[in-house]
Amino acid sequence: MPGPPTPLAEGPRTYLRPFRPEDADEFTALARASGELHRPWLFPPDEPAAYAAYAGRLIEDPARAGHLVCARDDDRIAGFVNINNIVRGAFRCGALGYGAFAHAAGRGLMSEGLGLVIGRAFGRLGLHRLEANVQPANTASVALVRRAGFRLEGYSPDFLLVDGEWRGHERWAITAGPSWTPSG
């Protein structure tokens, strides 16, 4: 079995690492244990076959960058922050997808992890803009992006199919430049 991957970025309490096939058991167990926290907003893979397809897309697709947020104190996966739909060229933008696992919720680990992802996106990945589309009633998710310095840009009705229904989302965004600092 391969050793631990080199962190993609490190903070005082968390570090980022890539998704790996061998994370299936831990990730899916955490997803199953976090179902009550995630519903009705999020449905991460909770079975190994679904995880394999999900992680495979994040590993192989150049229009995606997957990040597992891990706690430094125990090396457990605290959550994930993925950059999807990466567009290069003049746009240099990506759309975030993220979630915390129940054992890590409310501990500030995702705030730190999101800050690390933003720094990586605006640095190594060369992006200029990140977007987060959030269902307005998901107050924890709204608070997370607000803390990170995202600004509310509008509302899109019937934006995304979630749990069998087309749901409206608030559009939040952050751009690289003088208004953004690594601390958020």
Protein traits:
alpha+beta, 5 helices, 184 residues, Aminopeptidase, 27% helix
Outline of this structure?
The protein is an alpha+beta fold.
Poorly predicted regions:
none
Q: Can you name the CATH architecture of the domain at 9-18 and 64-175?
A: 3-Layer(aba) Sandwich
Binned strand content: 25-35%
Main-sheet strand order equals 1-2-3-4-5-6-8-7
Give a description of the structure.
The protein is of the alpha+beta class and 184 residues long. It has a domain at 9-18 and 64-175: Aminopeptidase, CATH 3.40.630. Helices cover 27% and strands 33% of the residues. The chain has five helices and eight strands, in the order E-E-H-H-H-E-E-E-H-E-H-E-E. An eight-stranded mixed sheet has the order 1-2-3-4-5-6-8-7, with helices on both faces. Strand 7 and strand 8 (165-175) form a beta hairpin. The termini are far apart. The mean pLDDT is 91.
